[in-house]
Amino acid sequence: MALVKLQTQNFRNLAPDPISFSPSFNLIYGANGSGKSSVLEAIGYLGLGRSFRVTRHQAVVSHGQSKLTVFGGLDKGMAGTSDDSQEPVVHRLGIARDVAAKETSLRVDGEAVRSLSALAMHLPVSVIDPGVFDIVAGGPGKRRQFLDWLVFHVEPSFSLTWQQCQRVTSQRNQTLRNGRLDESLMRVWDNQFGALAETLSDIREQVFRKFKTAFNEVLKELDAGWTEGLKLEFYPGWDRSQSLVEVLAGHREQERRMGHTLYGPNRADIRLKLGGRPVAETFSRGQQKTLVILMKIAQGKVLSDLGKQVTFLLDDINAELDVRHRIMLARKLQELRCQVFITSIEHPEPDVLWAGVDAPEYRMFHVEHGKLTEE
Ligand SMILES: Nc1ncnc2c1ncn2[C@@H]1O[C@H](COP(=O)(O)OP(=O)(O)OP(=O)(O)O)[C@@H](O)[C@H]1O
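A: This is the predicted complex of the input protein with adenosine-5'-triphosphate.
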């Protein structure tokens, strides 16, 4: 599905006018501080339930206001196959956040829903912004988030198991921190945690295999020497030749000393290695960035193969990627029929992105003081 309508109220500096987007490419440009990132942030808000730029909702609501709303209309996609002006909206998503009352209300097709996943499953939003490169350069948490986003969109039931697992982990941590360890209570938590962890890791592992296949295909097409010998491995968070319950029982004293759970899905990672060493130590900054882009493309490919359309938000990537890589990215996303939003300060150059090939259907917008005008 693709986001073809957006309307916000009290969202940063954005004007409240409704905007129609292409289910294919949308090129958004404007001066510094005009509101380009805010447009993408509002789209991200619908698909992720939060800002991809800041953690505090308060920062997103317009100055002097206490409540924001974002509405989105989705058409059934796939990008490039439809003329969106003819395409009816098939789903309506809404999110309202009252920052004073700390309340969020969610709506799908006019009906109130409780869980963010009800919104997210309709709009798989993938962000490529300057912070995304931490997927390779940063800690395991970023890679876990990267994998879990895909796992959720392949297998939406994952979010319930994930939440239950989080809850048991935090209860287990509390027990670990209690002065004298209650061994019988720990065993109860271990059994619950162990069962959830095995289920969670099975799903992660299955989806990781799909991802790895897609990634290797993307890599093969790129045919770049520097990726020779690159290895991607899923680490579930413990050595699965043993059950998690056994591993936990064998590390009781160590966990008690640290005061938190050291083994399990909360420690999962995608390990990226070349010649046995983490790529963050061997690849250049540019190569690490390309690797992240390829991983994002592979994510899009997994979902596209399942008939799902990803909405990619490319925020301010001109500063990070040279023109060759921007062209590669745009063309791959076009091939995968993703919906794409690209922001830039300069006037976009579709002739450069699609030189010598058929350009996708696109719309171009200029942003000034939070207002989008189509060109
Ligand atoms: N909560 C808010 N309420 C109102 N305006 C805000 C709020 N937060 C930020 N702004 C303003 O909104 C404007 C748009 O910011 P945004 O980051 O979207 O700009 P941009 O076009 O992406 O800029 P740049 O090219 O510099 O990254 C800025 O002028 C900013 O100061």
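Residues 12-13, 30, 32-38, 59, 61-63, 316, 345 surround adenosine-5'-triphosphate (CB under 6 Å). The chain has a mean pLDDT of 92.
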